[in-house]
Amino acid sequence: KQLEDFAAYCFNKSHAACYGLIAYWTAYLKAHYPDAFMAALMTSDADDIDRLAIEITECRHMGIDVLLPSVNESYVEFAVVPNKSKIRFGMSAIKNVGVGAVEEIVNERDENGKFASVMDFLERVDTRKVNRKTWESLIKAGAFEEFGQSRGDLLFNLDGLLALGSKIHKEKETNQADLFGGMDNAAESIAPTFNFDTAPEQMSEHDMLLNERELLGLYLSKHPLDGYGAYLEEHALPLEQINDTMDGKTVTIGGVVTSIRSITTKNGARMAFVKIEDKSAECELIVFPGVYEKLNAVWQQDQVIIAKGKINYKDRDGNMGQELKILVDQANQVTEADAKAYQPKGKKPKPPKGTTPSKPSKADLPPPPPPKVIDDYKEQSLYVQIKDPSDAEKLKELKEIAGEHPGDTVVILVLGEGDTKTALKMPFRVSLVDQLSERLKQAFSEECVHIK
Questions:
Q1: The domain containing residue 177 runs over which residues?
Q2: Are 205 and 235 members of one domain?
Q3: Lower CB count within 10 Å: N or C terminus of the chain?
Q4: What is the reported pTM?
Q5: Angle at 174 between CA 171 and CA 176, to 5 degrees
Q6: pLDDT in tens, 404-434
Q7: What is the pLDDT of residues 16-41, one digit of tens each?
Q8: Are the C-beta atoms of 303 and 263 separated by less than 8 Å?
């Protein structure tokens, strides 16, 4: 009865019917036309790299290969390769490649057939419409891979190629403008040739993968962790196996560092927020000042690391969220040589046992009762006293410091002093580390900070 009444005004039957039908349609399409469905889904999420990464992983689980962009097979959007269970990356999803340039390439290909070589592409596609930046991005993304030249050699010869391309298209315009010039003779007079020079230093596989991530938003042809298989399997838990029921548990993970954001805290200490990804997912590592200083050399872009710490899904207010964070205690770098020299022992790490299901958010809970003195907490709690209840700045400072050290310990705010003290349970929790205690004692004085 309650559900029926609820359906009458909040999520009514017409909405339920529509969403039910959409769910049926999408399930049918995914089951019967999986490659076309996934191509359409990735096109709709082309600007959301996190979603795109999840969908490409899903494609691999479904046995669908997602291929690098190609000037001969890609379109503006993600597209299915005919007669194959494969999807080509959409060219407009490449950074610095505009829709207009892609349409120019696709229209020429549709009218006059596939491109036979880089030189054929140069002759047929006007360099004024597909400019240097676009060429460079297409090369780095692997869109000319099928023609035999390496990405390094193409980049090394790019200036010469574009100069020749400009000359070709100017000659074409001149011959078209000449009312007395025969087009057959004009075409013969162009007959361009180009000698490719070998780059003095070939692009490394590492640099190729970095270019892919920069321009496509993710690694596609390979992954930097491909050479770390057995080592990571036996030393680190895949990120996709971690969920919010494990909040507060200790775990060891491994992956490649994709971004580092360092900040200076109010007391002048350095800490960092580090993005790391493995082949299944990504997460944020929170590196507090003590750990950051001790392990400063570990935090380098594109470095493969192993990190141990506490799982944390709570936001700054202590409510359960969806984003995985790890509060790091230990970390170390792992080289590919270390991984290759490792002798597998056949033991893989097990996920920590989950605790209770996800806690409801603050919005789902009933209003709290009026504040009262709290004297019956059974768990260990952090007590912070603000003697002047009207001091809003002190309360703000407490929230900021607590936000830098999220964890599982209850925070009790004691307002006032003497017989007028009132204790309140704060909506956030903290991790009882030395840095937190030191910061609080500096901000509120030692006599105002207690752990009971």
A1: 33-216
A2: no
A3: N
A4: 0.66
A5: 110
A6: 888 888 888 888 887 777 788 888 888 887 7
A7: 889 999 999 999 999 999 999 999 99
A8: no
